[in-house]
């Protein structure tokens, strides 16, 4: 593998994956809005350790023309990617009653439309044997209380990845959908401060992962060519029950929500 392209590589899971590939001696193109000075230093240290190179290509994932331009520039610098990962995303934890329609559309635009923009831009540059990976979330399988926007967007990413699997696997281009549970990243830390307390308690069902552990497991699964990647035992177990025993899973969540509503009273709209 010579070139890995990562959107959202300036922070969070994208940054963690980028550093791991750089340490292996693989060139990495980072497509993001910005990369902080601190994270630039981390990427450069990883590149020096692996004798590799990285480059930043500024891009807004909601702007399809900007994504096309950044992908093309990265290909011109490092050649076509062997692995292309869309890790750009945003979280929002608000109930439908507390959320404005514009907020819903923003989450969909970044998480779902952004995934489409990246896939559309990078697919023409992928050769047989390469891989496209879209980062969804365990919420794309289970959703959560207060996740009407985020859950809908991540269910959509999983649906998009599934469809692209049908379209591109016969051409020799492989697909992966990454569905991690909660991971201690700046995005999640922000959500914890601002998010709904009932949702915060429910997320303990699948646990919260250390980012290094999550990145190690995700990269290992990508190396193994896995389609559905759910890091952590608790995450896998939660996803399994949600998919294969939906009645049981729904009953458990409904029971927990009713219990938590006594601790965190909910005002009935209207």
Pick out its properties:
270 residues, alpha/beta, 7-stranded parallel β-sheet, globular
Care to describe what's here?
With 270 residues, the chain is α/β, with parallel strands linked by helices. 54% of the residues lie in helices and 13% in strands. It has eleven helices and nine strands. α1 crosses α9 (211-223).
Low-confidence stretches: none
Structural class, judged by helices and strands?
Answer: alpha/beta
The value of Rg in angstroms is 19 Å
As a percent range, the share of strand residues is 5-15%
Helix content: 40-55%
Summarize the biggest pleated sheet: 7 strands, parallel
Query: For the terminal residues, how far apart are their CA atoms?
Result: 57 Å
Mean pLDDT: 94
Strand order of the largest sheet: 3-2-1-4-5-6-9
Q: List how many beta strands DSSP finds.
A: 9
Number of helical regions: 11
User: From N to C, what is the helix and strand string?
Assistant: EHEHEHEHEHHEEHHEHEHH
Shape: globular
What is the element layout, followed by pairings?
Elements lengths: L2 E5 L4 H12 L3 E6 L4 H14 L3 E5 L5 H15 L4 E4 L14 H22 L8 E5 L3 H4 L5 H21 L5 E5 L3 E2 L2 H9 L2 H6 L5 E2 L1 H13 L4 E2 L3 H12 L1 H18 L7
Parallel strand pairs: 1-2, 1-4, 2-3, 4-5, 5-6, 6-9, 7-8
Helix pairs in contact: 1-2, 1-9, 3-4, 4-6, 10-11
